[in-house]
Amino acid sequence: MAVLTEDHSRSGFPGSHQVDPIPVAIRTRPPSDPEATGRFAATDPPRGLDIARLKRVGGLLRDRRLQFLLILPNQIIFWLVIAIGIVGTVVPGLNFATAITWYLWFCLVFVMMVVVGRAWCAMCPFGGFGEWVQRRTFFKRTTKSLGLGLKMPERVAQYGFLLSVGAFLVLTWIEEFFNIAGPGNPMATSFMVLGIVGTALVFFLTFERRTFCRYVCPLSALIGTVGAMGSVAGFRTRDRSVCLSCATKDCMRGDAEGFGCPWYTWPGSADSNAACGLCTECYKACPSDNIGLYLQPPLTSVVAPSRRRADVAWSVALLFGLVLYQQVNALGAFVSLDNWLNTHLHFPQYPNPVDYVGIIAAVAVVLAAIGRLFSVAFARRDVVLAPGGTSFVERTSRFRSYFVPLMYGIIPVVGADYFARQLPKFLRYVPRVPVSIGHLFGFGSTSSRLYHASLIASNAGIIAVQDLVIALGTAAAMWASWRIAGRDLAPLSRRPLAARVAATALAGALGVVVAVLYVWMNAAN
Amino acid sequence: MTITETERTDTGRHVTVLVDRCAGCQECVIRCPAGALSMESASWTAQADDALCVGCRQCERTCPFSAIVVEGPLALATRVDPPVRHPVELHANVTETRPGYATWDEAIAEANRCLACPDPTCVRGCPAHNDIPAFVAAIRDHDLETAHAILRRTTVLPDVCSRVCNQAAQCEGSCTWSLAGGEPVAIGRLERFIADQVAVPAPVVVEPTATALSVGIVGSGPAAIGAAYELLAGGARVTVYERDDRPGGLLVWGIPDFTLPDVVARRPWEDLVAAGVDLRLATSVEPGDLDQLLEAHDALVMAHGAGQAMRLSVPGADLDGVGTATAFLQGAKAALDPGGDPAAFRASLGVAPGRGRRVLVLGAGNTAMDVARLARRVGLEATCVDWLDERFALARPDELAEARAEGVDVRFSRTLTSLEGFDGRVVRAVLSHTTQRDRTSAPVVSPDALDVLAVDLVVMAMGYRIEEGLRAHVPQTPIVKRHRGFAPGRWSASGILANPASPACFAQPVGALALDREVGLWESAMPRRERLWAAGDALTGPSTVVEAMAQGRRAARAVLDARPSRDGRAHGAEPSSPRVLVAYASASGTTARLAEVVGDELRRSGATVSVLPVERVDALAVAQADALVLGSWVEGLVVARVRAARAMRDFVDGLPWLGGRPVAVYCTYGVNPRTAPAELAHQVEARGGTVVASATFGPGDRAEDARIRPTKPEAFAHRVAAQVLTQRARATVA
Ligand code: SF4
Ligand code: SF4
Ligand code: SF4
Ligand code: SF4
Ligand code: SF4
Ligand code: SF4
């Protein structure tokens, strides 16, 4: 006898002589009710936008093979990338590994990020591979996992996404150093991908669930922050009161139908799409059919969350630093600086780690200084801050109460900037992807007409597209900042309107800086 | 007080909520016995007040994301344990060795150690699921009537169980303090205190009407006692057939007086006979009698136990002086009764004056301990040998210690190789050494190391099994008491399974053991075949008193629910409406909607219906239902293997034995159901169900598309109703 034991105690027939004595002895305390505090009202997606209610979608999401089938094609492509990068042609533009990775994939990931959120995570071959090994299955629900199953130590876990930002910075530096995305030697791309898969595997075998994805994956922080603009809210509770009185929390613990949430997210308290990997496990596991897959208006997860996280704010600041660095490094002044540093520090080549870290840190510090300035200029002295905790994510301060919302507000600029940075490669070179595929089968070469084709070839055209993207992002950021400041900053400020205007202006100003840099960059080219 | 880490207070206890991982689900908050946890509403994470925390670690065990960590000592007073009595003169001494609480002070002091856990793991650990925190609270209130009333909801043998239960593997082993590594609340002693102070209340009797159920019970051990109490309370007429000339089965012959005094062991049957049970002693039921009994009664509860002692077949096993535990226990008990004569008993065993007095007891489980300790009391020397390693001993650790204190020589990692005789009587035993790696692996016998022991008597006390004759007539027994697959959510949620095998419960996986016992409980609710139930050792093989009692009660209530009827019995006035459980596995909602359609039709036909997805069906609902309807979507495409959904197949596999219960099946399909319904029906039959109807519903047949009435699902429901209602009608009219 397996599945059947006393479980959901309300299933019995009335008037029966048989009663289950265990529920009688359970006298749990009443849970505190978040509806009463209005805790989640602003972040709950519109009830009507639950696409899991559509019959076909619901059926698909219930199928244990869905995730497998999403991961499988990417898995095949990335193992091909690894293999072809090593054994294939050394012409980067013709090598499938480099072509697909840098002309198409990176750009697609950004599109998915901005439109959906963690769509990539649902199909990611890196985490997917680790997870298969950890669970010892492709899609079945298993109980015994492979590996040590440790928990991420709190000392590290308290920094949330920041570890992931660190990983992204390191990876980007390596990529610049070896000119992997240039694209340089295709083999470098192979080793990079292999490195990510290997690291992921080590983490999956050391820690439980998707600790790698939640804390370490280089893409995770970027997707978690920029993805907040996305229009998919993720898997959320349909009726919070059902979740509150739910005696089993199968979505967190797992049951026969699904694993417990690998991302440490409880659909009952999720207030943004940042930590839902769209893996469908909770949807399968919930015995009360109380989970939906919700759409939301764009920017909801930027504007609405009431629990704003410091790790997200610092991630935004650092990621902005990185993308600015990548813009600045095309400028003549930077090249001189980098060369000067390399000569004096005896570092072989671009990029010098000192200016790399320096510029990124400088941007983050400037943004923090702006946050500080806001708090000095606007903060009301009579406002008592909520008591925070001692861990990084939970501390509260006057500085944070301005800095954190401001950083949420500029997420669209940062997102647009990253996207715009990928555009030239995509617009110029994406026609090479089919050529590189053809090359694998013996036709297609650097002399193919398609190889030299572009979606947009001219500098002016590309700048126009880039600045259009930035303009959109800036507008979104200004709108978001206006809203965020209205809710989060105004009540703390002496001059609420001025604070709102200043926050909005900040977003606008950053957008202008970015747009101008694109013009300069291309001029420098 | 802060969110993440509370100030260190001088209690030395410190609760850390790992805020990054805490999702605010409140699993810890609603279960904290001390009220030390609450929600921090801004961040929606748990927060702790160290000053209130008692260190029980319940929160750690229940948090689904392992987001809470407790450090520091347990706030736990010393357990009140009256010392074991070691009789100065063991010979012929049958006074109880384990005393109860003599004073209210002791009992209250112990009761105060109980935290009244909101989701008490001890209750899951108790095989009868006694509401322990409630009766402990009643003791604290000095209200023993209420305490008895609470106990009566789940047990009819509190005086017996509190003495004979292996609490370390059951209630006490599962106490939150035990799971946290501390000394558990002395639940057994507190339960006993209630029964010591105020007599266990007499059975509740509802006077049987002229048309009352008549139920026969075979056997009179704890399972029979449990069943008889419930049947009396349900207004049934109860007849008990006992082979012995004394009722009580194992309670009276299998447990020595120094553990269970005679007055306590006799109490249940004195009460039951006074309450009107028709007890027929010295009436042996043979397999051939069953049909006749089924004609005489509406239902039979087989509670004949597992009384056949196991024998070891080694060279010399047929020598004089080699016997079984059953005979020895019965003889020794009689010899120690007032008016008995230990010397005469010894003589009857062939242990004559002037000869050695060493009895070799084979086994070192609880039965062997009883044999050896009785042997000491009738003036014999006792050596127990067991091939298990001492670390994995089957006997209760306290029992083992007491036996050794009474001079029993217990040797583990030894097994009997042969017995040697002189003049046809056993004189020597040859023992081999064994080694055992872990609990689950069988010991390995090493060929060279041998002990030779001079013995005068050998008692085989390796345990019992069900007598083959009756067993063959009770289908699917003994059951395998093993919970397979995923632990039910509420069990995981309670934290009982997250037990670190604490030393307080002798490193036993108490949660897993409890879950396995649950299987026996739910199987006892299902008939083995039409109108025949089984409970206790007859169902599960040798087990414990409390389990047998609980299963007997469960079986009796199932009988009351099922209201079976032998031919020719006039039933009560109103025919009761049959209970039908419609369980479905649905992917897109079609199968679920059809389940509702079928359910509605059945209701219209007069049935009481419960419609549930398979993952929400619990054993209770299955046990209560008179009939099942199973609906499943079919997996696989035309080319792949087409069959009922995995969820449904797993569900049917996990069903208890259905014992002939009527089952109807339907499958919903998109293209072609192929053999899916037939396979599902086959699977149901393999679980003992009787398939009464089967149907498939394709895209055109679904209720919402249908223009004709009745639709195909409705027609299916009518067929099911006809089957189920006729059965009921047959039972009602006759
Ligand atoms: S989503 Fe389902 S399983 Fe999870 S808490 Fe809510 S009702 Fe329970
Ligand atoms: S289990 Fe649910 S909440 Fe968790 S990552 Fe997967 S889809 Fe998102
Ligand atoms: S250890 Fe026990 S008392 Fe302390 S917070 Fe956890 S559940 Fe509450
Ligand atoms: S049980 Fe765990 S996740 Fe849930 S509120 Fe408590 S600490 Fe947080
Ligand atoms: S019946 Fe046995 S297991 Fe249950 S509470 Fe009493 S002593 Fe403990
Ligand atoms: S006996 Fe132990 S587990 Fe049971 S309620 Fe008391 S403290 Fe809790």
Major sheet characteristics of chain B: 6 strands, mixed
Any idea how many domains of chain B? 5
Give the helices and strands of chain A as they follow along the chain.
HHHHHHHHHHHHEHHHEHHHHHHHHH
Low-confidence stretches of chain A: 1-9
pLDDT average of chain A, as an integer?
85
Strand content of chain A: under 5%
List the total number of helices of chain B: 28
The 3D shape of chain A can be described as: globular
Supply the helix-strand structural class of chain B: alpha/beta
Strand order of the largest sheet of chain A: 1-2
End-to-end Cα distance of chain A: 71 Å
Q: What structural class should be given to the helix and strand makeup of chain A?
A: mainly alpha
Q: Multimeric state of these chains? A: heterodimer
CATH architecture of the largest domain in chain B: Orthogonal Bundle
Structure write-up:
The complex is a heterodimer of chains A (525) and B (734). Chain A is built from 24 helices and two strands. With 525 residues, chain A is mainly α. Chain A folds into three domains: 44-60 and 233-295, no CATH class; 64-226, no CATH class; 310-521, no CATH class. In chain A, α5 packs antiparallel against α21 (411-429), α17 packs across α20 and α20 runs antiparallel to α23. Chain A is globular and about 85 Å long. The model of chain A is unreliable at 1-9 (pLDDT under 50). Chain B is α/β, with parallel strands linked by helices. Chain B has five domains: 3-71, Alpha-Beta Plaits, CATH 3.30.70; 79-202 and 483-515, Alpha-helical ferredoxin (Fumarate Reductase Iron-sulfur Protein, Chain B, domain 2, Orthogonal Bundle); 204-292 and 469-477 and 528-573, FAD/NAD(P)-binding domain, CATH 3.50.50.60; 322-465, 3-Layer(bba) Sandwich (FAD/NAD(P)-binding domain), CATH 3.50.50; 579-732, Rossmann fold. In chain B, 34% of the residues lie in helices and 18% in strands. The structure holds iron/sulfur cluster (6 copies).
